[in-house]
Design brief:
The chain folds into two domains: about 140 residues, no CATH class; about 90 residues, Metal-dependent hydrolases (TIM Barrel). Helices cover about 55% and strands about 10% of the residues. It contains twelve helices and four strands, in the order αααααααβαβαββααα. It has a four-stranded mixed sheet.
């Protein structure tokens, strides 16, 4: 399609930015290795790396690389790239630093999703470069375009979401991805709910990402209890921890470990129950649908079912 797009429609930097996107998503070599070196947390955004690459391209690479790691990367890698991205997008000296950063990340997310349409990607690449200038008129225009509310640069807004889920329950986003999207939306406080138990590794990634992006996070564990002959859901939300290390130390205590172990047993019970329903559907109910509605329902494969719901505890 590039052959039918006149070259003078877009700036050479737009094409260069689009090439970087393609390289990262395709896991090609070349400029990727060099750019990854420039994203090391030990290098300051205003330091020596300004001689090797422009701020726009470093921000673009950081966003793309993070999006690429959100599904397949390790937590440590995601956090490292998130920290580099945070430093890069807030290194400008404009009057709308935070809102500019939110716009840049949102544009790059949209650009990555627009694979297959080079013209649309070039338009977004151009929008990205224009927004990177930080001019208020451009930033406000992009905020309206993506239905984002302008937030105070002091980052003291009252905005919260008191029940969200990540990929470890019934959500689709890793903890780092969840925090990044909350920051784009301007949310300052989140309560992330898990079913029956929560792993220390998940807590560490979630709280570390929240600390990087200056978001207050509460962690809730939803349990089921019997009350007057009926089951009720109760969310246990431990509070009073200033640092991630304090929460991890709390999780390592024997009573808490015992509580989480019981929660894992409950989760396993729910797991088995859902699989038994799946088996019952294959043996009985799909034939009922066939006889009653003349529908030929195929047998549901358990492995494919697990792949569909993801690695979290969506069964619970």
């Amino acid at each position: 399609m590039s052959s039918i797009i006149p070259r003078f429609y877009f700036d050479p930097e737009d094409y260069r930015l689009l090439r970087i996107v393609s390289e990262v998503l395709g896991q090609e070599r070349g400029t990727i290795k060099e750019a990854r070196t420039l994203l090391r947390p030990s290098l300051h955004p205003h330091g020596i790396k300004t001689l090797a690459s422009s701020s726009n391209l470093r921000i673009a690479f950081a966003v793309i690389n993070l999006l690429n790691l959100l599904e397949t990367g390790q937590a440590k890698e995601r956090l490292q790239v998130l920290r580099s991205l945070h430093d890069e997008v807030l290194s400008s000296s404009g009057s709308m630093r935070r809102n500019t950063a939110r716009v840049l990340i949102q544009i790059m997310k949209t650009l990555v999703r627009s694979q297959g349409s080079e013209l649309e990607q070039l338009k977004l690449a151009h929008d990205f470069r224009v927004a990177a200038s930080g001019k208020p008129r451009n930033i406000l225009k992009q905020l309206r375009k993506y239905h984002l509310i302008e937030m105070p640069e002091e980052w003291n807004q009252l905005s919260f979401d008191d029940r969200v889920h990540d990929a470890n329950t019934k959500g689709r986003k890793s903890p780092t991805h969840l925090i990044m999207d909350a920051w784009i939306k301007g949310i300052r406080r989140l309560t992330v709910v898990y079913y029956h138990y929560v792993d220390a590794g998940v807590v560490e990634e979630l709280l570390s990402a929240a600390a990087i992006m200056d978001i207050e996070v509460h962690i809730g564990v939803e349990v089921t209890a019997l009350r007057r002959g009926r089951f009720v859901q109760i969310i246990w939300e431990p509070k009073g921890f200033e640092q991630c290390e304090e929460y991890l130390k709390f999780l390592s205590q024997a009573p808490v470990q015992e509580f989480m172990a019981e929660g894992r047993k409950v989760a396993l019970h729910h797991n088995k129950y859902v699989y038994s329903l799946l088996e019952l559907f294959n043996k009985k109910h799909r034939f009922t649908l066939r006889d009653k509605f003349d529908l030929d329902v195929p047998c549901l494969d358990q492995v494919k079912f697990i792949d569909f719901i993801g690695a979290g505890s969506a069964l619970y």
